[in-house]
Every structure is written in C-alpha cells, then in structure tokens.
Amino acid sequence: MAATNNILIIATSVDEYEKVGYRTGLWLGELTHFYDVAEEAGYAMDVATPQGGKVPLDPESLAHSVLDAATLERYKDRAFMDRLDRSLKLADADPAKYDAIYLTGGHGVMFDFPDSKELQGLVAAFWDSGKVVSAVCHGPAGLLNVRTADGSYLVADKDVTGFSWNEEVKFDRADAVPYNLEEELQSRGARYSKAWLAMGNHVVEDGRLVTGQNPTSTQGVAEAVVKRLQQG
Fold it and tell me: Which residues contact 15 (CB under 8 A, 6 or more apart)?
C-alpha cells in the first residue's frame, strides 16, 4: 500500500448544544496544533465534516486565555481559515487518498459523530485497510459505534482515552452534554485511562489507534500519528 502523504481531518457541523443555549463547534486548537505538526512533517491535509461547508468554531476556543500564539497565527491566516468555510462532505471523502484519519473535538462532535453512518464507514475503512485512526478530546465520540470487519466494536479491548467526566464537571458541561464519553467508551469494551489532573496531557497508543484526552494532548497525538506513519 503506497503512502499518499495525506491525512483526512474530521470536524463537527454542529454549532450549539441541544439542551442549553451554549454555542459550540470545533475547538480550533485541536485542528491547528495537529496541523502544524503534520505539515512540518510533510503531510497535506483535507478537512471534512458530516454536512460539508462551513466548520463552526467553539467561541470558547477563541478566548485569550486559551488561544495560544500558534493557534492565533492560524486564526489570523485568512487562507487557512477560508478552508474551514468549504470543508469536504464526509460522503464525498475517499479513504484511499489518505494514510490516516484524525477526529477533532469540541462538544459539537458529541451530537453528530456517533450516529453518522458516513463517519462510521470511513473510520472502518481506514482501520480495516491497515491505516492509522486517531482522535482527540471529544473526537473519540466518533469511534463509539464503529465496527470492524469482524463485527466487533473498534474500541473493544483497546487502550483509549478521551475527554473525562471529571473535566465535563469541572468546566460546567455535565448538564449540557448528551452522554458521558468516558462511560460510553468503557461500555463498548475499551480500556479507558486518563490523566490524574483535569486537562493534563495524556496520549494513548494501541497499535494504529491513537487517542488524546483533551486539547493539551493534541500535539502529542499528532506526533504519535506522524511517527507511526513514518515507521510504515
């Protein structure tokens, strides 16, 4: 299987919570930090969403308290940000064109990732063809209902992580989210682990499956994905 040197990045199309008035969307740093690492390593990337078109941004990810210098540079780059206005529709994404898939977070993914048949099919296609599957923060919500060629859950008997319930509570989202991601991963047979402290950097690798717990884990996920791709 010849390398394409391309990575498919998946983001949400959802811009608000269903039960409360908070706005949500992509957590921008979870795109930019991954992008910076992969681009420096020579990879090109496409962004796809369930609906295609404009990628909504979580307004809190643009706050000065979390908008670091690297993400701010991307946010100021009109050409880069314009790409987020014309994301590829999931149904039109061809897994044969990419070496890896990466699922970004932001609370929006909790609503449109798990039940997306297109996303389930894409992730399964990457996995079953021996490619790298990765996700960060709430992105593992997109792994919940993915089944492999033998019919088992992709995350079953795998070491994984994702945004913890402790972090939902700490950031006042426990009453707003539709489910407990930590518990849902475990209910499908995943061996879930997390950092001792909320928002602590925590990256888990289980073969070709790479997951990160929260935004601070994004760079580590990217580095792990790049390393695995370069190893073949």
Answer: 23, 24, 25, 56, 108
Best CA proximity match to 130, nearest among 10, 44, 232: 232
Joined tokens for residue 40 = 């420096």
Strands (E), the chain: 6-10, 44-49, 88-89, 100-103, 132-136, 159-160, 191-192, 203-206, 209-212
d(CA 67, CA 164): 22
pTM of the predicted model as reported, rounded to 2 decimal places: 0.98
Q: Residue 214 corresponds to which tokens in the numbers above?
A: 């929260």
Question: Of 94, 90, 193, 92, nearest to 142 (Cα)?
Answer: 90
Across the chain, mean pLDDT equals: 97
The token pair at 215 is 């935004």
pLDDT surpasses 70 at 141? yes
Residue 2, pLDDT > 80, answer no
Amino acid at 135: A
C-alpha closest to that of 121 among 90, 162, 98: 90
Percent of the chain with pLDDT over 70: 100
Burial of 92 (0-12, 13-18, 19+ CB in 10 A): exposed
pLDDT at 117: 98
Place of tokens 């792994």: 143
Q: Which domains does the chain have, with CATH numbers?
A: 6-230 (3.40.50.880)
pLDDT value at position 1? 64
Rounded Cα distance between 209 and 112, Å, is: 21
DSSP-derived letter for residue 219 is H
